[in-house]
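Following up on my earlier thread - several people asked me to post the actual chain instead of describing it. Fair enough. Here it is, all 281 residues.
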Amino acid sequence: MKRRELKEKIELTTQGQLSLFFPGTGSAFTKLNFQNNILVIKGQDHLLIDCGNMCPYAFHTFNSSITSISNFLITHSHADHAGGLEEVALMNMYITKKKPNMIITDEYKKILWNKTLSGGLAIRGEETGRQKMYFDDYFTQIKPKKLKNSLRPMYEANIGSINVKLFRTKHLFSSKNNWKNSFYSLGVLIDNRILFSGDTKADKELINWMCDSYNIEYIIHDCQFYKNAVHAGYDELKEILTPEQKAKTLLCHYGDDAATRDVKKDGFYGIVERGVYYDFD
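Reply from S.P.:
Thanks for posting it. Predicted structure:
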């Protein structure tokens, strides 16, 4: 993996290599690092994983527009991951006159529309020609295919040359401590080589399953530097990850005090930086 600096604005193509760019790297209430959203770029193809309420402004700070994004994948409905979608939908409807693609299952499509987006997007004015609007008026669904024989439900989709596999995580779970009883939330495996945990509690079963099933080169993991009931705590990750797993783990979704932390001394690869490209040959 090589680190590459951003030039004048966000570039949505590469020379063929897989690249990850983070418009933001912070947690829900960050004031310095924006929110943890990931732009995946490979050749002529791109995919934005999550679009939090600060994401359109994060793009603006890089002299870029969120309307340049053609493909979205939303891991769950918390505002730091889905709060920017209303702006995306309206700017594309009224300004660019296009419908972006979204990788989304039928199950989550209903949740995202009925419980998050419909409040601001279902009713429109006379300029649309009709009053009642729906998800498909704003986004084109790319329905992922459900895979067989996986430890948890797993879905697969492609955006051109980019392959993603989606799986459930344990985020805001019940007292049963089971992903089945959790708030609907996904992690993403990118090109069978980069594991993005999504928002999750520390989940040894998940990490071991992925590392045993795929040749995982790097793990990008949700991390809070205090123990809590929603995200993976730093001390928990130190405990559940093997030395080999820690050595390839970059921490993300952190608070504004992350810069004061020396995670390498504990065996981690490092902390993800906002506004740089990570290139994978």
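The mean pLDDT is 94. That should answer part of your original question.
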